[in-house]
Amino acid sequence: MQKSNPKRAQRPPQAQKKQPGIESKMIPQPQSEGSPQMEQKLIGKVTYISGGDSGIGRAVAVLFAKHGSNIAISYLNETSDAEATRVLVEECGVKCLLIKGNIADERFCKSSIKQAVKKFGRLDVLINNAAVQYPQKKPELISSSQLEETFKTNIFSHFYLSSEALNYLKEGSSIICTTSVTAYRGSAHLIDYASTKGAIVAFIRSLSAALADRKIRVNGVAPGPIWTPLIPASFTKKEVSEFGSDVPLKRAGEPEEVAPCYLFLASDENSYMTGQILHPNGGEIVNG
């Protein structure tokens, strides 16, 4: 896999025609493999990751695998990326289950959780991560079909997957949701996307309160500009070449720089945090 320079401020112009995008076509490739294996924090556990085939999801899958967790990944249709992630995960000595389907569909969400439990016999961590975004120059250009797809994919799936997962999650388990910096500062060209990410913040805070007595923690991560396939699949070549240059650190982040947030939230080190959000965003102050 081609490695990129995490200190690079800009990427070359590029675009992809379909979302969520194909990681193998990105130049340079996002960094997903992290540092060499350290003390394992998730030995024997099982983690389900929606959108785990590429980007942040892949980086989380690989990091969790290094720490001993078996991995179940749901993905839309990016089979080549999913298979590449499976190889990276299984190289860590754990098992990886790939589940193809659309998380906007409640039936798929529930069946995919069941498949993971059938395969591994348990579920310890649910990571609601997959999302879509469709930039529009004017608010009135957001169609009802776009609005419906964005909400079904980005927030309805959190309800569907979490509801089914709660049939299997035990005391000490964890639900982690991917929100966004846009939930806190807004986005003029991603109004529907930012709205779903704001809903996810409220979902995290509400579900954490509902599950506190059951000792199941619910937290979230709100990334800023991260170099994932969703970027060239969403923006123009020029916008991609400038992506991330407007944050204090003057660059986009790499998926492997975000993944440790999820590891912390899933591990026993986080036993006293629930209803909280971590902010790997290149230095934006969002007071969230």
UniProtKB/TrEMBL annotation:
User: What Gene Ontology molecular-function terms does this entry list?
Assistant: oxidoreductase activity, acting on CH-OH group of donors
Q: Which UniProt keywords apply?
A: Oxidoreductase
Ranges of Basic residues composition bias in the record:
1-10
SUPFAM superfamilies, alphabetized: NAD(P)-binding Rossmann-fold domains (SSF51735)
Q: Which domain of life is it from?
A: Bacteria
- The answer, when asked if Oxidoreductase is one of the entry's keywords, is yes
Q: Name one Pfam family in it.
A: adh_short_C2
Question: Where is this chain compositionally biased, Polar residues type?
Answer: 29-38
Region Disordered: list its residue ranges: 1-38
Answer yes or no on keyword S-adenosyl-L-methionine: no
InterPro entries referenced in this protein's UniProt entry, alphabetically: NAD(P)-bd_dom_sf, Sc_DH/Rdtase_CS, SDR_fam
Which family is this sequence assigned to? Answer: Belongs to the short-chain dehydrogenases/reductases (SDR) family.
Q: What is this protein called?
A: Short-chain alcohol dehydrogenase like protein
